[in-house]
């Protein structure tokens, strides 16, 4: 984390002015944003939001991007009605706030979402992606959920599961070189541990000069110097999903 006054500089980036192509639905005990491609498909991706919650336009933009690539995309409210973090909140209170939202305790919600995707959407092959808090949740799911095909952890907070590396499914890890939240030493250690313990396919990729949030929280038109890496990160994410779903 950055410092005690600002323990998580997750407000880096731009809020997209984006309405979304999908719709909000009730899935069991939680709400979710769902977008489906025009043609029929049995492939789906669960999108796990960052600390700013399931309604952040940026995250819905990525969900819709998945749909244009042929996937049913669903972004559930993994905070289960609890308030998402706001940029106006006092960062000094962040650690207490995040303790009540554990990325390693979403299994009940994931089971409900998987049932919905299979029963209501006809999905048979399901993957998962996640950003920051959601990236940590992806790592958790890749360690234990047998029903998912693959995962992409996008600047997931490694320290949440730093002692666990026996992944069940192929997993792609995306990091920014200049991420204040996830130091490169942590990324190097993750690579070493995966090499020693992981029996499935994985990849760890660091994008030059990029800060936290670059894949979904930076706009290409405002950050032209970052545009190639934003596009590369998104393309790599899609290519990984295409390979394993």
UniProtKB/TrEMBL annotation:
Principal localisation? cytoplasm
GO molecular function terms attached to this record: hydrolase activity
Q: Does the keyword Cytoplasm apply?
A: yes
Q: Kindly indicate where the leader peptide sits in this chain.
A: none
Subcellular location per UniProt equals: Cytoplasm, Cytosol
Q: Tell whether Cytoplasm is among the UniProt keywords.
A: yes
Q: What Gene3D superfamilies does the annotation carry?
A: alpha/beta hydrolase
What residues does the Dienelactone hydrolase domain cover?
30-244
Q: Pfam families from the xrefs?
A: DLH
Query: Mind listing the UniProt keywords for this protein, alphabetically?
Result: Cytoplasm
Tree of life domain? Eukaryota
GO cellular-component terms in the record?
cytosol
Family of this protein = Belongs to the dienelactone hydrolase family.
Q: What is this protein called?
A: Carboxymethylenebutenolidase homolog
The gene name on file is Cmbl_1
